[in-house]
């Protein structure tokens, strides 16, 4: 049973799949204090949060069993993703579950701001009838500057077009082609500042975007601009905004998010042209169900080893990509295990080559699988797909990927080369239709080896009687040979034998084999992943 802890208010209806699943127990501790969370987190395999719980490094370090932190929403700024990555914990979110709600909230804020709705409501509900005081402005024919034309920015665009606004978009990823498809003008930040009557922000909060609306930007804005922020608090320098509002350069601001939530910079609320909501962008019944459904499915996928769609600290995989890549992931791990055992020590350089059909695939997850397979040999179960690249870097190692378009011979091919102080190991492998994964190259030798649990790798002189002697020693010691591959480069030169065995051999047998005249090296190779004694059914093509 996997124990999942929910520490923020997350939709019960959206979590139904988790409740109903036989492998999960879901516990709720909403509002748990940080020190209490730290004390209990070690008991849980998964944690679900919205944005109230701060999942700090301290808490992550205390989380001995945790495999996943799921954010029921978009922004993961309340989670120390780096600390989670170092610990090998997957962080997932729901990137699209609240897009429409946040979009509609942005439009609601823009309309409320332009027509003074909250202020007029307050006045009217106090018995006043101040029609002149709350005269507003239309959106019709006004220019809207959208900073960040991702999911929410795009949806806001569509709705602003319905109001017949002219839309300017600024986003490093906005191309002319996409802008014209959306019916908007691609602009620079300065153009947005100079031309917009309304500016709305839809970027994540990062080093580059923190205080993007600052004194310098505000000084360039058209007088009377109205600013809407339903994205992240730190995007706007609240002190600079306060000053621009007081000076009258900015005619109004609608804010759903703040630099230090739940605090609001003193002075802002005293201004008559500032309207606020307490981070309500995603607070609709529909969005809350959607985000909870999304993270429940992701958690089930993670524990059932299915494709994960929305991991923050792992490559994304679609279900289709996962299905095509699954056999390669297994083969990649086996190649890595063989490679590192053959090298016998930690590599100083790693090279991975992809060819054939693999050139058409997203191989990021395969690369991580191979790196994980290599590192696990020395670092054990602390390595997983989340932290493999981080741990590699920590070891001061790099890897190099080659994509070989001129490779011929197999319809798909991957090769791992490991290097250490003049020593090199090369393992080539392919998925052969109808036969599954095969090792097809071992150092300089062409081979055809089905990866199995117990392998024996023998280097010897190419002299008569060697195969017989090896067979006899194994037979005398009750060790059945499954398959045997032999190879040599030249008559009388160095040759290899690779045997698959039904069980591993003892040190005594190894010593007997090593004692044979002409024997150069005998090495046991063990695969811990996905070995099979069953031939896959033949698939006609
Ligand atoms: N108020 C809420 O409750 C609420 C709800 C949902 C999302 N959000 C926030 O809204 C924001 C947008 O969410 P989304 O789902 O549209 O994200 P998204 O990832 O789909 O889009 C973000 C866009 O910002 C762009 N961007 C990044 N750096 C930029 C820069 N320096 N200048 C201009 N554009 C830049 C990216 O290229 C991307 O296109 C996020 O901060 C998210 O956390 C808030
Ligand atoms: O209400 C929430 O959970 C916050 C939503 C929003 O800020 C997000 O990033 O998804």
Automatic annotation (TrEMBL):
> One Pfam family from the UniProt entry?
2-Hacid_dh_C
Catalyses which reaction?
A: (R)-2-hydroxyglutarate + NAD(+) = 2-oxoglutarate + NADH + H(+); (2R)-3-phosphoglycerate + NAD(+) = 3-phosphooxypyruvate + NADH + H(+)
Highest taxon of the lineage: Bacteria
Q: Per its UniProt entry, what is the enzyme's top EC class, as one word?
A: oxidoreductase
Q: Which GO terms fall under biological process for this protein?
A: L-serine biosynthetic process
The keyword NAD is assigned to this record: yes
Which Gene Ontology molecular function entries are recorded, alphabetically?
A: NAD binding; phosphoglycerate dehydrogenase activity
Asked whether the keyword Repeat is assigned, the reply is no
EC number(s): the record gives 1.1.1.95
Signal sequence coordinates = none
List the protein's name.
D-3-phosphoglycerate dehydrogenase
Q: Which organism is it from?
A: Weizmannia acidilactici
Q: Species lineage, top-down?
A: Bacteria, Bacillati, Bacillota, Bacilli, Bacillales
């Amino acid at each position: 049973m996997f124990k999942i802890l929910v520490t923020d208010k997350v939709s019960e209806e959206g979590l139904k799949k988790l409740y109903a699943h036989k492998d999960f127990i879901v516990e709720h501790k909403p509002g748990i204090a940080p020190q209490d969370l730290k004390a209990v987190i070690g008991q849980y395999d998964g944690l679900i949060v919205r944005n109230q719980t701060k999942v700090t490094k301290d808490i992550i370090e205390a989380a001995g069993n945790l495999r996943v932190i799921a954010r029921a929403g978009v922004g993961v700024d309340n989670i120390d993703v780096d600390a989670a990555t170092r610990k090998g914990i997957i962080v997932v979110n729901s990137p699209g579950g609240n897009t429409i709600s946040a979009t509609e909230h942005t439009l609601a804020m823009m309309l409320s701001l332009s027509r003074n709705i909250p202020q007029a409501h307050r006045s009217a509900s106090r018995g006043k009838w101040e029609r002149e005081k709350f005269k507003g402005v239309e959106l019709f024919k006004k220019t809207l500057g959208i900073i960040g034309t991702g999911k929410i920015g795009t949806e806001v665009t569509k709705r602003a077009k319905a109001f017949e606004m002219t839309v300017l978009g600024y986003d490093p990823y906005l191309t002319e082609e996409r802008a014209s498809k959306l019916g908007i003008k691609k602009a620079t930040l300065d153009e947005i500042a100079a031309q917009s009557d309304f500016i709305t922000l839809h970027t994540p909060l990062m080093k580059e975007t923190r205080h993007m609306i600052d004194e310098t930007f505000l000084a360039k804005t058209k007088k009377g601009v109205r600013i809407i922020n339903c994205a992240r608090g730190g995007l706007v320098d609240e002190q600079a905004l306060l000053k621009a509002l007081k000076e009258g350069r900015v005619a109004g601001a609608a804010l759903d998010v703040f630099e230090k939530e739940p605090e609001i910079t003193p002075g802002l609320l005293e201004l008559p042209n500032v309207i606020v909501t307490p981070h309500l962008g995603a607070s609709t019944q529909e969005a809350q169900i959607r985000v909870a459904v999304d993270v429940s499915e992701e958690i089930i996928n993670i524990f059932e080893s299915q494709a994960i769609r929305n991991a923050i600290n792992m490559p994304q995989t679609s279900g289709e990509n996962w299905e095509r890549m699954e056999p390669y992931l297994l083969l990649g791990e086996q190649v890595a295990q063989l490679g590192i055992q053959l090298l016998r020590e930690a590599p100083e350089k790693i090279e991975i080559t992809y060819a054939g059909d693999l050139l058409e695939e997203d191989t990021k997850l395969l690369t991580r699988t191979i790196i994980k397979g290599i590192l696990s040999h020395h670092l054990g179960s602390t390595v997983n797909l989340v932290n493999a690249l981080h741990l590699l870097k920590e070891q001061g190692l790099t890897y190099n990927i080659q994509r070989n378009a001129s490779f011929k011979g197999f319809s798909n091919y991957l090769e791992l080369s490991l290097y250490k102080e003049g020593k090199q190991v090369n393992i080539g492998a392919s998925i052969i239709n109808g036969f599954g994964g095969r090792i097809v190259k071992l150092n300089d030798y062409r081979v055809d080896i089905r990866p199995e649990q117990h392998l024996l790798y023998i280097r010897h002189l190419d002299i008569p009687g060697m195969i017989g002697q090896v067979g006899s020693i194994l037979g005398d010691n009750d060790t059945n040979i499954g398959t045997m591959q032999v190879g040599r480069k030249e008559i009388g030169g160095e040759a290899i034998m690779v045997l698959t065995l039904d069980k591993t051999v003892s040190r005594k047998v190894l010593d007997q084999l090593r004692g044979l005249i002409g024997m150069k090296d005998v090495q046991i190779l063990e695969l811990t992943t996905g070995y099979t004694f069953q031939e896959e059914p033949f698939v006609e093509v």
